[in-house]
Structure prediction request, 253 residues.
Amino acid sequence: MALRRDPHVLVVGGSDSSGGAGIARDIETISALGVRACLAVSAVTIQTHQAVTAIHHLQPSLVADQMRAALRANKVSAIKIGMLPTRRVIMAVAAVLSENLRIPAILDPVLASSSGRPLVEANAIDVMKRDLIPLCRLVTPNLIELAVLTGSELAVDDEDTLRQGRRLLAAGPRALLLKGGHAVGPRSTDILLLPDQDPIRFDTPRLATSMRGTGCMLASAIAAYLANARSLDDSVCEGKRFVFDKLRKNSAE
Ligand code: PLP
Prediction:
């Protein structure tokens, strides 16, 4: 069959048997926004909503081959990257991205589950910074990931967050979205940071609820809007609204 011409988001990430996070959430989000998804699985995880009990890595060449086949089969207009379990998988994904630099890549730098289980080898952080982050259009760390990626203590305030963000921006992504969901206060603020520009803040009321997979949802929603040729600012604004609406519905249930 010929190449499919409708815009697709290529999802690269791990499966989560509970359905709470990972590629199931990604595909659900991208489909809800009317965009098609194609897929490269990087890991299989065995989890409930409470705990991760096992993680199985896929071979780096298997991940890269899935990506190349998805790119051959479809018009891929954005690539959303989530859990990458090992250094070698990160390097394999970076190699495919470097062959496809015109396609915007959104990296959610997943490091651990909310139950605290590491989802990436500890020695992979350097490679993520050196090989992968510079190829990304947008990287979306939460405050914990930001601290790990910059070798810092958890940011205590806005100024600290911006200082760490600027340090990570020096690693070469074209933009960062610093997610404030783990902070405290009545508002949940995410900060879009671009080189040589004032930070742009996206703000919603903080809801008294929590939900798994919101990081996956946000990065996937942004990728879906980018795939539909929306600007980065618009995509972040709409993506945040999408996640907020999901959280609001979840808190009403
Ligand atoms: N499992 C997989 C496969 C993921 O990709 C992610 C996050 O992206 C998680 C678990 C973590 O999700 P949570 O923070 O909801 O535990």
Q: What stands out?
A: Strands lie at 4-16, 36-47, 52-57, 74-81, 105-107, 138-139, 176-179, 187-193, 200-205. Residues 13-14, 16, 20-22, 45, 82-83, 110, 113-114, 119, 212-213, 215-216 surround pyridoxal-5'-phosphate (CB under 6 Å). The mean pLDDT is 94.
